[in-house]
Amino acid sequence: MNSSIPPGAADEQLEKGALSTTDIVFFVLAGVAPMGVVVAVLSLSVALGNGPGVPGTYLIAGVVLALFAAGYVQMSRRITNTGGFYTYAREGLGKAAGGAAACLALVTYNAGTIGIFGSLAYFSDVVAGQFGLHLGWATWAVVALAAVAALSYFEVTLSAKALAVLLAAEVLVLLAFDVAVLVHNGFHGFSLSVFRPSVVFGGGFGISLMLAFGSFAGFEATALYGEEAKNPRRSVPRATYLALAAITIFYLLTMWAAITSYGFSNAKAAAQADPQNFMFKAMASMLSQGMADVMAVLVVTSLFAAFLAFHCNTARYQFALARAGLLPHWLTRTHPRYGSPVAASALQLLLVAVVTAAFGLAGKDPYLGMGVSLFGFGVLGIVVLQAIAAASIVGFFLRRREGEPVLLAIVAPVLGGLGLVVGLVYMISNYSVLAAGTVKQLDYLPWLLPIAAVLGAVAAVTRHRNESVRRDQNDAIAGA
């Protein structure tokens, strides 16, 4: 197996054997924020997209990502490195591609993390206000930042346990909603028309597909925890398949239930009339207003879990890039006891605080002004990275296939990559909808992606050339 882990000093290594398959799955599922997606994204997808065809759209997204995951899993068995997309691109397409992916990942994951944080601060204030606690979103932002700083400082299993508790609560409530709709409407109430091609590919399909890919953003983070997994050759593939299957089935059933609760013909009009309360009204009608209030609280805990998970992902990317020499070396510092990437984590949280403070001082809304736009940009970048990874996987196995099935190692990632490119076209053409914020300049954020890719590629090639020159000089000195 090609581990791709540089030897390095002790403080350049993460804690080995800390995470089980279940722990990694919790990181991924919490990162996709099921409650946040169902409440915030579902209503927009139904209202602005193909209406009752949303469940079918999520099925398409799940199939595309499953094809991508087939190759991704084969690659994870050969390469265990917290660098994720960066490592895959470097091994599959060369150092320039690796550098491009590194810079893209750095920009993308930081933007996504900051976007989630803005949404968390906003909704924390809104929900707290419903219970008479008016402290302002900035106060909740400080509380969330402090909590994530504490959790990410200690052993990674502590974060996994916290995510497990938060995830279980939101999943149980949504499953209760699904069951309530089933009891109320029966199996016959779940119309198969939601999967009819004419419905799925009807007006607004592009917007719904864009939001569907966004809802899966973060599932690929399983590979980031390979170094900390107890058995990475088994844990990472299992976690990837389990997480993707769980996300696809859960979203499909819950969104199908939501459509059913309003009626196939009425769902789109209801979402357009009141998108903010689309799911809350459905929950209140199927269960109770009390459960709708619980749902509101769990939207906040869901976003907190997503922020924690994305922060851990981003910190590990920064750690890996520093260890590879693409970021300052001090970012490789880990906690001597817990093995957590404390330096990379601290830098990431500092960036979150600075950007949030800048938006706040400018008087911009933390959700519409910062959250939606930056997370939308982050999602766009992640899909670009997935497409690059698909090409990298094919390139890697075309040269170094050692018994891996052609169907899984080459054919599946080719098909998945093509699906991702199609999704990417839809996302770029509809980005102004996804980033419908109050800061117009943020609509130009997608241009940062090609700029970041070029800068990363140049940096990687330059570093490789300089290393070659130094090696030649040292050889010359030794020969003399």
Your description of this structure?
This protein has helices spanning 21-31, 34-48, 54-78, 85-93, 95-130, 137-153, 156-185, 197-200, 205-216, 232-262, 267-273, 278-286, 289-323, 342-361, 366-400, 406-429, 431-434, 448-479. It has 480 residues and is mainly alpha-helical. The protein has a single domain, classed as Amino acid/polyamine transporter I. α1 (21-31) crosses α13 (289-323) and α5 crosses α6. The longest helix is centred in the N-terminal third of the chain and has 36 residues, at 95-130. The radius of gyration is 22 Å and the shape is globular. Its main location: membrane.
Topology diagram in text:
Layout: H1 21-31, H2 34-48, H3 54-78, H4 85-93, H5 95-130, H6 137-153, H7 156-185, H8 197-200, H9 205-216, H10 232-262, H11 267-273, H12 278-286, H13 289-323, H14 342-361, H15 366-400, H16 406-429, H17 431-434, H18 448-479
Helix pairs in contact: 1-7, 1-10, 1-13, 2-9, 2-11, 2-13, 3-9, 3-10, 3-15, 3-16, 4-5, 4-15, 5-6, 5-13, 5-14, 5-15, 5-18, 6-13, 6-14, 7-10, 7-13, 9-16, 12-13, 13-14, 15-16
Beta-strand portion reads: under 5%
Q: What count of domains describes the coordinates?
A: 1
Which structural class should the secondary elements be placed in? mainly alpha
User: How many angstroms separate the termini?
Assistant: 38 Å
CATH C-level class? Mainly Alpha
- Going by CATH, the architecture would be Up-down Bundle
Rg is 22 Å
Which regions contain 5 or more consecutive residues with pLDDT less than 50? 1-10
Pfam families: AA_permease
Membrane topology: Multi-pass membrane protein
Transmembrane segments: 24-44, 56-75, 96-123, 135-156, 163-187, 199-219, 239-259, 290-310, 342-362, 374-398, 405-429, 444-462
Protein name: APC family permease
